Amino acid sequence: MNQTISKCMFSSKPRENPDGSSGIRAGSRDADAGKALKIAFVTLVYDGMPFLRHHPSVFRQLNMPWEWHIVEGVALLRHDTAWSVASGGRVPAWAMKNSLSTDGTTEFLDQQQKKNPDRIFVYRKPRGEYWDGKIEMERVYLPSLREPCLLWEVSSDELWAPWQIENVVRLFRENPARTSAWFWCNFYVGPNAVVCSRHGYSQNPEVEWLRVYRYRPGDEWQSHEPNVLVGRRPPFYKKVNVGMKQPFTHAETEAVGAVFDHFAFATLAQIKFKEKYYGYRNLRRNWLQLQRDVRRHLPVRLANYFPWVKDGTMVTTPVAIRAKPMAVQDPKGWKFRFVRQSRKPQHFSLLILDSSWCSNLARCLGEKTCNQMFLSWARDGFSRQLLHLDRTGTDPDWPGIMKVRSSKLAYLHGPLGGLFLDHICRKQQARMMVLGSGNMPLKTTWLKMEFLRKHDKKTLRISWQSKSGKREHQVVTLTAPDRLAGALRKIFEAHLKFLEASGGKE
Description:
This protein is of the alpha/beta class. The protein has helices at about 30-35, 55-60, 95-100, 105-115, 135-140, 160-175, 240-245, 250-255, 270-275, 285-295, 355-365, 365-380, 415-430, 480-500; strands at about 40-45, 65-70, 120-125, 150-155, 160, 180, 185-190, 195, 210-215, 220-225, 230-235, 240, 245-250, 260, 300, 315, 325-330, 335, 350-355, 385-390, 400-405, 430-435, 445-455, 460-465, 470-475. The strands form five sheets. A seven-stranded mixed beta sheet has the order 3-2-1-4-9-6-13, with helices on both faces.
């Protein structure tokens, strides 16, 4: 037994599955085919209440073998978690006194381990000792994973429903070559405040959220931030980044309803700890102001409250975007619920709004009306499907719409410019691009749209041409920005439905 760790559970032979079988041998055909995949949930935690209570109740409902490895205690700001030291981050004094949780997490984990000693394993340093960065916490449980499995990282404040986990496991069983899975999340910055835009803070598909890996004995953690698990894989058995080799994309996991709830900034206790640990100056004051401002159900810009957020990420209430959080706070505390899958999971098809379209609309209607229209989309959640392509780097920030810049497009014309637009659409996993003028993508579906405001100033003629050459138009009354927002949304969604019905071909 490791002398520096108390209550570590290691067995001298592979642990048996609940059905009495001894698991799958590494490298066997069954392991690769995913017919008996075990899940190894992993949680690194310090002061994980109240959300940690949700996890065991979910795991015990699963109809598949699982185990839960929890690494508890304070991690020093070292190695790849040392980035916050420069901004004043430090381990809070109350955490340095004990090194273990102070909110009941320690006692709760002990109780859970007694209930399921063959499935729940807790790793701790002796009192007064600290983990040498989070990378040490990641590596300590790996010797206990003695058979191929799905290594599923689940933080204490990340909530999943049982049917979501089962759907993801089904994906891995049906696709044995896939090595990992990326996910979107509903990111909560308050008990009643959730991020309602994508491709920005907490919703960056380049780095968030890689949560599940097809683990094989011998794989090892290279870093924690970012999460890099390396292992040897066929055909040449060279070390590869398991998370990047052949992952399920955000769109694929979202298509089966696997979008988890992440309550990262939901309680005052979390705010007090992160203000010290990550050096987020004045976080408590700004967070309290955010809670007051978001009650009006109007989207607010997160950067106005969290200074380290440098993009246009927007926040609103769950009600405004019809979200059903798995954790709800009432006067008696936090209550958890499972939102069972009652319909086909919603799949967001991303649209790219080109600079030319945005500038033409603003020129015709004025920035004030455009802002109100984009706010309407942010309120109903449609802004999650939109991405603003800024070709020159000088476009204004529209509320709720995330922006991607590409200066190369300022001087690329003709077929070369079209190929580069296709490259952007593929990278962003966009199904369609909406333009006002200029070069169009060669392969990606596009709409070219023009606006003409009538002389009475109360009506707008919208004309558009699709890639197939079909021309259409519609007249919209400008009595309210919501009416224009609804008309444009119907046009976009009609074309997306046609694309899905035709298999992506016009």
